[in-house]
Amino acid sequence: MDDAHIEGDLTRVLYSAEDVARRVTEIAAEIDEAYRGKDLLLIGVLNGAVMVMADLSRAMKIHCEMDWMAISSYGSGTQSSGVVRILKDLNTDISGRHVLVVEDIIDTGLTLSYLISNLRSREPASLEIMTMFRKPEAQKNMVKVKYVGFDIPNEFVVGYGLDYAGHYRNLTSVGTLSPHVYS
Ligand code: 5GP
Ligand code: MG
Ligand code: MG
């Protein structure tokens, strides 16, 4: 494989672009069913959720609005810092709205529990979570996630919006990086 091609940096592909697309379509159908006739606002968490937000929302057939939040959790490495800051807040007042938070991945759930309590204080009519990937740690957490793309092993993955040091978000498949990338 060509070294200049990002896919060549993966040691293992966990999910192909087709696997991801199929699962996103299934979840979109569930969301269509659950929110039919409701005033739905999707909140994407930047930057990782950009890809899933774009695909999920277009796989849905019901009306929705979209807004975005940016929070910081990880730095450029692979360890959770536990520090959460709002870098960009919503443009929308969510009080009385049916809100579905769209996430790329939940690891410890630290970032999400902070976000959810923050959003809950704004008194939405309902507040649910969709995440494309979820790691085992998150199960111990109190945050209830309604829609999960895939439960994955406790490994650092990239692709489909997920980065390592800002790179690999544009990879259409999802997998683990080869050790040479880290060194
Ligand atoms: P948590 O607070 O749940 O531990 O971490 C959530 C955030 O950490 C995610 O939104 C994502 O930015 C980052 N993260 C957690 N696990 C991974 C991973 O396996 N790969 C990548 N690229 N980012 C991850
Ligand atoms: Mg995220
Ligand atoms: Mg990141």
From TrEMBL:
EC annotation from Swiss-Prot or TrEMBL: 2.4.2.8
Species this protein is from: Microlunatus panaciterrae
Catalytic activity annotation: IMP + diphosphate = hypoxanthine + 5-phospho-alpha-D-ribose 1-diphosphate; GMP + diphosphate = guanine + 5-phospho-alpha-D-ribose 1-diphosphate
GO MF entries: glycosyltransferase activity
Cofactor: Mg(2+)
Pathway(s) where this gene product acts: Purine metabolism; IMP biosynthesis via salvage pathway; IMP from hypoxanthine: step 1/1; Purine metabolism; GMP biosynthesis via salvage pathway; GMP from guanine: step 1/1
Residue stretches making up the Phosphoribosyltransferase domain: 16-164
Root EC class: transferase
Compartments, as annotated in UniProt: Cytoplasm
Stated family: Belongs to the purine/pyrimidine phosphoribosyltransferase family.
Protein name: Hypoxanthine phosphoribosyltransferase
Primary localization: cytoplasm
PANTHER family hit by this protein: HYPOXANTHINE PHOSPHORIBOSYLTRANSFERASE, HYPOXANTHINE-GUANINE PHOSPHORIBOSYLTRANSFERASE
Keywords of this entry: Cytoplasm, Glycosyltransferase, Magnesium, Metal-binding, Nucleotide-binding, Purine salvage, Transferase
